Amino acid sequence: MQPNKVNRHLSHRGRAFLWSLGIGLVAALVAIGAPYFIQPIRDQVSRADITAYDWLYNHRGAESQIPQVAIVEIDKNAITNLQDRNISYPFPRAVQGHLIRNLKRAGARIVGMDILFSDLKTGAALEQSDAEFARALRECGNVVLAADFSASSGGQVDQTASAQDFPAGPFREAALGYGPVDVPQDTDGYVRRFTLTLPHLSMVNIRKTAQYPQFAVEIAGLYHGITPAQLLDQLRRHRFGSTIIPRSPDDWQWYQPGKTAWICYANRPMLSCPLLEYDQVLGADQDAASMARLASMVRGKIVLVGSTDKSEHDAFDTPLKEISDRSRPGVEIQANIIHTLLSGHYYSPFAERGRIALLFALALLTALLTLGLRPVRAIAPVLLLLFAIGWLDTALFNHRIVLRPCEILIAVILAYVFETIFQYFTEEARAKEARRHFGRYVGPKVLERVLDSGKVRLDGEVRHVAIMFTDVQGFTSLSENMTPADAVGVLNIYLTRMVDCIFKYDGTLDKIMGDGIMAYFGAPAVVPNPELQSVLCAIEMQQIMREWRQECERTGMPPLKKRIGIHSGEVIWGEVGSANQVGCTIIGDAVNVAARLEPLNKEYSTEILISDAVSQQLPDSIALKYEGEVPIRGRKEAVHAYSVQVPSTSVSNGAVQ
Known about the structure:
Layout: H1 2-37, H2 39-57, E1 69-74, H3 76-83, H4 93-105, E2 110-116, H5 124-140, E3 143-147, H6 169-174, E4 177-180, E5 193-195, E6 197-199, E7 211-213, H7 215-223, H8 228-236, E8 239-240, E9 243-244, E10 260-262, E11 275-277, H9 278-282, H10 288-298, E12 302-307, E13 315-317, E14 327-329, H11 330-343, E15 348-349, H12 352-369, H13 375-398, E16 401-402, H14 406-438, H15 444-453, E17 461-473, H16 475-480, H17 484-504, E18 507-513, E19 516-521, H18 530-555, E20 561-577, E21 582-587, H19 589-604, E22 608-611, H20 612-615, E23 624-630, E24 639-644
Parallel strand pairs: 1-11, 1-12, 2-3, 2-12, 3-4, 15-16, 20-22
Antiparallel strand pairs: 5-10, 6-7, 8-9, 13-14, 17-19, 17-20, 18-19, 20-21, 22-24, 23-24
């Protein structure tokens, strides 16, 4: 018997647990595998993660202003003011040289020109202007020029780039350095990342290396005291100074030719740096006060010069939400890249192994939390888990750690859906099993209660029940005077009426033994007062038998008399039998007592005999007569027996209430 008990325990408890573990694992594998193998799903997951982080970006704690950077902006006001001074736009290069000289005098440490100077002008005046600009670059010795490698959407570098993408030779030789200003755009056109180095495919007479530090990265390196050769070596190892630059969290969008990191935009939603008007900086040398004012704003800083006029098409969408739109001037994006590097405020991806482990753990937890719960009730723990994931994601993001939670959310939702589907089919299977086990033994009401409760165990459990045994007095001798067909016909009519009565009072038919019946009340469905239910059933049975005898007098059928014995107590209820034939029944001393009470009706000339255990649970409305102590064969203690007086009219089942 011990192996059977173990098997039953595993089948009824362990099997559901193991199924839930399997469901959680499948949900986790689908959540990971579907985006990995199916491009459209990967794109949707990526877009959902990015959308979530755009929202978080705009609700994070404010970044401080960039203390190391100031911007000299070329806007419509500056262009208009200089036109009034007969300086047309684009400004002559001699004018640009005058600007960088003023910035040098004011103490700017590094000047970054986010303006392309890729060609040399023709004509005496223009050539002189170019020469003046080159002389200013050489004399100042702190200017970094912009190159343009034509990065397209998604960070792909134009394969047809040429030497024209670099500053013209005299300017390149005179400048402190130069680098490509290109920034990669994600598939939605937003700039969230920057590229550490960019390749160039046309290397004739330019440099021997195939990689170039990005414009802002080179400026930050020079400001940090890192030589160009050292910087390039560090960037190859994804480092800046003594700090490791974390890889871009959205690793499925990596810009493959170089390496990328997320930009930590500062001071939302206003512009990130102090802004200086181009025309005011250009005229700062006209008086000492203006130069002093300029020096107070740029001394020791990085000064970026570029257009902030969106009509110049040098503006990009960013995750920062403005009142009007999300676009930012390219020069400001360069300033934020510098801020990211100098502050070390990098957005790091959550450790991939940890993220996968968390995904599996939460998928398994979801499956186990919803185990055995109906879908509506299971929503509460699932929503709690989803809220916890959102809270964790927000907390990590505020510490600049990117979780990428969408796959985790998908795993939790899939675990809930799969568990719900499993529960549905399990419920169907359980309902079929319950109908197979109990359909012939209990009435429809009890069967529905069994199915609704979902708590029926067939491996044996202790139940408090009232047990009824009935027998027809003298049926064996009566049947000898009848043909077999008539005997069976009479017995079927009798049993149909009796079984219907048992089901009416929520009883369970245990077995039919010829003309004898064994039934019990209180299992598999629990009833409030099984003793009262059994006695009311017995009274109605005897009333039916009285009507039966009146019928027999009219039809000539043999009159039948019925004896009933009832006792209550604790029994073991469950599935009992051999490997090939099993059935639900009850076992215990209470069964023996009820079986012994039934034949004692003949000695006491009674119709219904009950024990004192039953009588104590009955209301006063049911008339009882004490018959005395009754010895029970096989039992040391006698039983106090009571006979039930059967009224001529039916007793209302309302007494149960």
